[in-house]
């Protein structure tokens, strides 16, 4: 399907572990659905049957000593299936697709973090996606010392600590730098938000950026705080700490 022909919108959320992106995906989904906009919420890896297996291999065990190249191929296999099985059909149906991670995470983690060649990774990503690119990418930026502290604090409450969380602080600094460099290279696609801000402030900034992307009757459709659907943000506060 040609990119120009698709009727939906593709919005991705990126950032380090613990930045709160998963919470923001859920909040944006609720806001869009309250306006009557169909939404498909998804994630990488793990949105398909193949993705569940890939997620377990990548995140669920330290027994496998995976090199960055192996990680990249596993992620790309998941991504190819994800695009074909979930994203493209949803876009064709006119949905707003909200994905918790996509290609930029691979470039940041396996590229900047793991030292893989970015040109090779970009080519691999193009094969997996068939050239599909997000309309908007929300990057929630956060200092790794804060993000990792959030992640480890979540473990005491039963949160997941994965293989990437356990990597050296220097790795996470490289990942953060990678995300910021990717955003600087495509300023028309990225919006960068300070993850240290409050949940509501981040959500409002995202909403302001999303509206022009929606097009049609939704473009520029701003409302006052009193007119907006009420969301109990407090129920997401724990998620903001661990996502």
Describe this structure as you would to a colleague:
It is a single chain. This protein is α/β, with parallel strands linked by helices. It has one domain (3-242): P-loop containing nucleotide triphosphate hydrolases (Rossmann fold), CATH 3.40.50. The protein is built from nine helices and five strands. The protein has helices spanning 21-34, 49-59, 68-92, 103-113, 118-129, 144-155, 169-185, 199-214, 237-242, and strands at residues 9-14, 39-43, 96-100, 136-141, 190-194. Strands 2-3-1-4-5 form a five-stranded parallel beta sheet, sandwiched between helices. The radius of gyration is 17 Å and the shape is globular. Mean pLDDT is 85; it is low at 1-6 and 217-243.
**CATH domain fold name:** Rossmann fold
Strand arrangement within the widest β-sheet reads: 2-3-1-4-5
Number of domains: 1
How many individual helices? Answer: 9
CATH homologous superfamily?
A: P-loop containing nucleotide triphosphate hydrolases
Overall 3D shape: globular
Mean pLDDT: 85
**CATH class category label:** Alpha Beta
**Beta-strand percentage?**
5-15%
Strand and helix order: EHEHHEHHEHHEHH
Which architecture name does CATH use? Answer: 3-Layer(aba) Sandwich
How far the N terminus sits from the C terminus, by CA atoms, comes to: 33 Å
